[in-house]
Give the backbone structure.
Amino acid sequence: MQENAPYRPERDVVTTIRDDGSRRFLFPADAKGRFLTGRRIVALVLIGIYALLPWIKVGGYPAIFLDVADRRFHLMGRTLAIQDLWLMFFLISGVGFSLFFITALFGRIWCGWACPHTVFLDHVYRRIERWIDGDAIERRSLAKAPLGAAKFARRALKHTLYILFSAAIAHMFLSYFVSIPAVWAMMGDAPTKNWGTFVFIAVATGIVYFNFAWFREQLCIVICPYGRLQSVLTDDHTLTIGYDTARGEPRGKPESAGVGDCVDCDRCVKVCPTGIDIRQGLQLECVGCAACIDACDDVMQKLGRRPGLVRYDSLAGFAGRAKRWVRPRTILYGVLLAIGASVAAWNIGGIRPAILGVTRMVGAPYYVDGGSVRNQFLVRIVNKRSEPAEFKLRMLDLPPGVEARGIEAPFKIAPLGEETRPLIVQEPRSLYTVPFSFQVEVSDSSGSFRIARSMGFMGPDPAADTAAHGSATDHP
Amino acid sequence: MSADPNHLQNDQDVRAHAYDGIQEYNHRLPNWWLFTLYGAIIFWIAYWSYYEWFQAAPEGAARVELAMQRIEAAKLASNASSKLDDKGLWEMSRNAVIVDAGKQVFQANCIPCHLASLRGKHENPTAIGPDLTDQIWIHGGHPTEIYSTVTTGVPLKGMPTWGPVLGPKRISEAVAYVLSYHKEGEPIIPDAASAPAN
């Protein structure tokens, strides 16, 4: 159902939800201009990056390949094992701090320019719709028209294209997790052969299709938490899209006297993809797409007036005050981001391609056997790399006279394989006086890394009777 | 409400309550949002019927039990070739592939004490473990006794408990390797000097 009179947005209700709770579908008009051109270039570059990352190989693996099946994560030539998953903390907190910082400075620049939802909606799906159904007026009348053969043909074509693009996006997404050749091989197989993956792709395609064909701005307005968060992250000096009330009001016809620059043409409202009137001020629904700027600049240019009645500026700027970039909020968010990034870099730099564990073997803490005191350890090494590697063990800080057995020969470990080696440390009974500590060190044959673990050697109190503890011998 | 043109002028939709001076409108939720609620209710009825009313699926404990038995079955299947009796272990000790696998296990885990020659204290009196090639057995010389000694260890003397470290397959391979130095039916001499610990 469409109203006959154009709907006037109000700040106290969501335009896309009618009083009875039903959806008011929007038919945003075209707005051409420098910001649309800029956003389109950014969007095409981003889609190119999303699509190409799984194809570009860095260090033998795709630039980004989250190999869930083998529990390995290849990121720009660096391979992380499942044991390094704790670094996800830095990814999540890093995204959080980056959003804080960027939002405080530039408002919803992410939403309008880089969010995949906007990128695919504005630059793929709305393009398809525009191509098949025509401009806003044509789309609105087509929506009102009864379903005849011509409308059915158009709808069928549009939704077929939507589904094809949704399937392509779902496959693109999958290729980050199972690699391009595996996706290609699965696409050639019958669905029953990879039932789980097929259902995943079918459901993902369905969700993507539903989102871009029907749900659209509802995601940004109702579901996305970032839209809500921004109201506590921005302040009077944050860059936002707004309307210069001082210059525009009072609105009036171009020829009239005593009126501002706004001619009340409603172009800014007609082009808005979330159905707001930017002249009512900064609102939660605004995704910062800048369509209203392009629309208004176009009108101002035709009237021979300065552009920028609707523009990127801060609330302070619109109020005629100076805009400040450096303020307590941006300093705080910037410092938090810098601390998080440094700690993350430090930790990622400290990732070792192996794990070394040394434990005391089950049994007595020490054995007195013949003329020597003996401690037994179990050394466990995991090769976290994607290729087999040769490892060697070495003892450090062993006092003279102490002998270690079991770690002499280097050994190969398969990718993600695990090996254990017994380590027997012995000291002549006559030399032993007090417990001491030593280190076990693992390195690979090329010496590209070393990891050391400290262990303690213990024995009987020299003053005490040896028979009291663990003095079993094979041949007394 | 003020006469701000940005706000609705009729306040009939404003709820009576006010918190910190903030009032809220009584607007309807989006219908699609309500559908998610109704959908969740329908799902709950189906879920509750399936699990609680009809009890169509096994209970949690039964499912865990089933999963554990599957794991156990897979373990047994992977171990199917190694019959854990004296005869089976002797057979394994005559199979070159198994003996070679056992040699790898032995070299990785056993030679610090028993030496690469398996001769332990007989080769070098300062070695830790006893000779495994002679016919003197401290803890029993039948193949299953050797297997049991390796699996549970002899903690009092320092023989580690290898069961949880190596698992049954690698232990039986290592035992087969030791047995490859022996012949079935050869005498087993209990070690007179050292009483068995168990």
